[in-house]
Amino acid sequence: MGVERLIKARRSIRKFKSSKPNWREIIECIDSTRYAPMAGNNFSLKFILVDDEVKIQKLAEAAQQDFIAETKYVVVVCTTPGRTETAYGDRGKNYLKQQAGAAIQNFLLRLTECKLATCWVGHFIDEQVKDILNIPKEIEVEAMFPIGYPLEKPKEKRYIDLDAVLYFNKYGNKKMKEEPKISA
Ligand SMILES: Cc1cc2nc3c(=O)[nH]c(=O)nc-3n(C[C@H](O)[C@H](O)[C@H](O)COP(=O)(O)O)c2cc1C
User: Fold this and answer.
1) From the CA of 122, how far away is ligand 1's center (Å)?
2) Measured between alpha carbons, how far is 177 from 11 in angstroms, rounded to an integer?
């Protein structure tokens, strides 16, 4: 599938088949994150692939979202702030979030390509997730991704119009200046 089709095919799935995906395939999808842009080329992310059923149940409780417990794998994405914050200070905090998003989108597109399904889970009690997975306190938990084969077809979604998000030359200006006509 080309990039545009993958971008459009990716959807959040919250119902999963009972069959277990091949974990090596999930690792290949995690591998795609290494190619994301990172400020100063400092890679700031860590990934924890969880297949322990008890831990997955506890992660579902930490997120207060039962559907997570239906999956055989959960990938937890963490940020190691160290080098980026040292190099860029407060601005670095911003960069860390931006590059986590860029890397996660690579991951999501590769999962889509592999016909694997997930849902980005950003709501959870950080301390609980850290306890379950022995994550050090200076490490930030960005999100978790329960992974399986899809058991639902998501409803058609309404996308925001391009016109509502695009400006030209200054904030709020919706018109592109017309190209001057070249006379023969
Ligand atoms: C930062 C972030 C946090 C999210 N957290 C949750 C979550 O905790 N639980 C959930 O079910 N979906 C969560 N979502 C998924 C969104 O609800 C979903 O992306 C949105 O409804 C659009 O649907 P789509 O992903 O199918 O395009 C999150 C998405 C993002 C980007």
Assistant:
1) 7
2) 36
Protein residue with its CA nearest to atom 30 in ligand 1: 120
Tens digit of each residue's pLDDT (9 = 90 or more) over 55-101: 999 999 999 999 999 999 999 999 999 999 999 999 999 999 999 99
Whose CA is closest to 74, among 60, 88, 64, 89? Answer: 60
- DSSP string for 71-97: -SEEEEEEE--HHHHHHHHHHHHHHHH
Contact 116, 49 (CB under 8 A): no
Q: For the whole model, what pTM was predicted?
A: 0.95
What are the structural domains, with CATH classification, of the chain?
Answer: 3-153 (3.40.109.10)
- Spell out which residues line ligand 1, taking CB within 6 angstroms: 11-12, 14, 65, 119-123, 154, 157
Check: CB of residue 177 under 8 Å from CB of residue 168: yes
Distance of CA 175 to the CA centre of its chain: 33
